[in-house]
Amino acid sequence: MDKVIHEGQKLGEVVSIFPKSSEIFNELKIDYCCGGHDSLGEALKEKGLNPNDIVEKLNEEYEKFIKSNSEYRDWRKEKPTDLMENILNTHHSFTKKELKEIDALLFKVLKVHFKHHGAELMKVHRLFGTLKTELEEHLIKEEENLFPLIKVYEETGNEKYKEDIYKFIRDTEDEHDAAGDILKELEQVTRDFKAPEGACTSFKLVYDKLHGLEKDLFIHIYKENSVLFNMI
Fold it and tell me: Domain Hemerythrin-like, which positions (predicted)?
């Protein structure tokens, strides 16, 4: 059987073909969301990994995925409005809920564990505060500006909307990069979202929720950068 996944493909394309590859990329710390336009081979070499081994593994897992008859949607073949609806209902809703819950929980953990873990938690608190503010504004701009423009363009095909859409896309991708940078800082400060030894349930939970937010944002950003924006 010919290999479906190869080194020359863009990371975003690999995830579109085989969605579960995102889990492998997460384990390897490969940025397939903001870095979705990079080739698989380049990304692996940059991490000092053997491309042949990883490509072989990806193809083996892809074959298992196909044989399992797992259902998935290749969003590249869908309409922009359908993808935007999925982004809104799946990722925007999740992000808003998690930002609110993490905010309250993190403040509680900061207060209770300030004496022993204050330095770490203050860094996490500040970084999360910046991320929360930027993401909330980002979501509103997508919902009120970018997505409605793309919808009108899809419905009318009027080229006059393209210039404004491209401007919003450039701004959106810059904001995606900024969010990605904050998440990388949070990874470092929290040792990949691992609470200190002996930490209480709430401490572990807030780090788990931050990790969950990061993984969902990776998929969210991938769907926009590597799929939706390429439809325009």
Answer: 86-232
